[in-house]
Task: structure prediction
Amino acid sequence: MLGLTNMREDMEYISGVLDDMEAIVEDASGVPMRKGRAMVDRADLLTMLDELRGALPRELSEAEAIRRECAAVVAAAEEEARRIVENAHERAEAKVLDTELYRRSQRRAAEGVERAERYAREIRGGSEVYQNRVLGQLESWFQDSLISVGESRQELGSSPVRRSPSTATEPPPPEAEENGQGWRASSA
Result:
């Protein structure tokens, strides 16, 4: 649980840095005669990008720690299953003289083995689902962050940002730009 708390704090920190970067870009002075262009303090943005890079490896190492933790849980369950099986065999051998008792012990041992194996499978399955979910969330978040950083880099490098057609805005219809007197309003 402590790892998830730290991960949540790191994600909040990274989100805060991204919010700060967004505020810098939004508050930047416009470049005259260049709609959509702005001047930003390069040093501030580069410092924030370095902070983000410094924060990302912690997330990755925490994901690896979660994977190791899951593997440890599975190993502990398998060890418990082995111990249960050994215990069941010892108890069964001690009661061999009485055949009904021996048969009952064999059944109990088989049930114990089955329960232990089922428990180990459930633990393994649950840990894999959990691991995949956490890593999938991290992967999605990192992809979104990398796209955002790439867009920021493109904007900072004066390169136009290429967005997918679904996010492109349509230009307003010509009648929306006219003021009703036969001339159009300037967007500058």
